[in-house]
Amino acid sequence: MTELSTKQRVTRFIKSHEGSTSAEISRGLGLCKSAVNEAIKRLKEDGKISVRLDGNRQQIYPGIIEDKSPQEAYGVNRMVDFFNRRISLVREGGEHAK
User: Fold this and answer.
1) pLDDT tens-digit profile of 30-57?
2) What CATH number does residue 42 fall under?
3) How would you classify the pairing of strands 57-62 and 49-54?
């Protein structure tokens, strides 16, 4: 089995822990903050993640997030959106249902 890159590990973490900060990602993966911040920078440039400010915290989400509610952005309520994202992860083989 091949080892995942830092960027891949950060992507998986963000998909399963939406709204995490870089410090939470660093702690969760056991990686140094600079490596996590570099991966976040590259993922943001690639359009793979979005960063949203909540007070002084930068919360990180998978994909592009518009400044709209999930109902407005996706035409669904939050729970449907949540389950659709989880099903997508399982289908990708990234996470198992818990």
Assistant:
1) 999 999 999 999 998 888 898 888 788 8
2) 1.10.10.10
3) antiparallel
